[in-house]
Amino acid sequence: MECECCNNLVLNDKYTTSTLTLTLCPDCHSLLQEVFNIGKVGNIAGCDVVDGMVKRGTCVRVMRQGRVKHKGTLKTLRNVKQNVEFIASGAECGIQVAGFQDFEKDDYLECFEL
Q1: pLDDT digits (tens, 9 = 90+) for 10-23
Q2: Using an 8 Å Cβ cutoff, are 26 and 61 in contact?
Q3: In a domain, 32, yes or no
Q4: Rounded CA gap, 77 and 57, in Å?
Q5: Short-list 38, 41, 39, 60, CA closest to 49
Q6: Are 40 and 92 contacting, i.e. CB atoms less than 8 angstroms apart?
Q7: Are 8 and 1 in contact (CB under 8 A)?
Q8: In sequence order, what DSSP letters do the residues of 86-101 get, joined into one string?
Q9: Chain centroid to CA 16: how far?
Q10: What pTM does this model have?
Q11: CATH number of the structural domain spanning residue 62
């Protein structure tokens, strides 16, 4: 069973009451450089991909000052005003996270695939 974007894979043994939780390492880190407010769409995080690859639809953890600010799903991923499926390390992109608008400069976004 997967927890919805909590970066943990929870395994339940149907024969006992034991539960095993595995913590997954992030596939990608992005540094938020600027926040863009796009009218009806909301806030978009303008990010530099530091390492790994950002993929649309993955789970995202927004980190601020070493603490988890939000966990959600990557809703939109754009590069130069075009929707893209992925962005590789070293590139810039615009990211919208489902259910989250409170981005601040220097937030880190960690992406996971469960």
Answers
A1: 445 555 555 544 45
A2: yes
A3: yes
A4: 9
A5: 60
A6: no
A7: no
A8: EEETT-EEEEEETT--
A9: 34
A10: 0.75
A11: 2.40.30.10
List pLDDT tens digits, range 72-109.
999 999 998 899 999 999 999 999 999 999 999 999 99
Place of tokens 């919805």: 4
Identify whether the C-beta of residue 96 lies closer than 8 Å to the C-beta of residue 109. Answer: no
Locus of tokens 């601020």: 64
Rounded Cα distance, 105 and 82, in Å: 23
In a domain, 89, yes or no: yes
- Total domains in the fold of the chain: 1
In this structure, is residue 105 part of a structural domain?
A: yes
Q: Which residues form the domain of 31?
A: 26-112
In the structure encoding, which two tokens stand for residue 46, read together? Answer: 């303008």
Find, among 66, 73, 80, the residue nearest to 100 by Cα.
Answer: 73
Closest CA to 97 of 48, 50, 43: 43
Structure tokens at 85: 């499926």
Which residues have CB under 8 Å from 106's CB, separation 6+?
A: 31, 32
Give the total residue count for the chain.
Answer: 114
Q: Is 61 among the domain residues?
A: yes
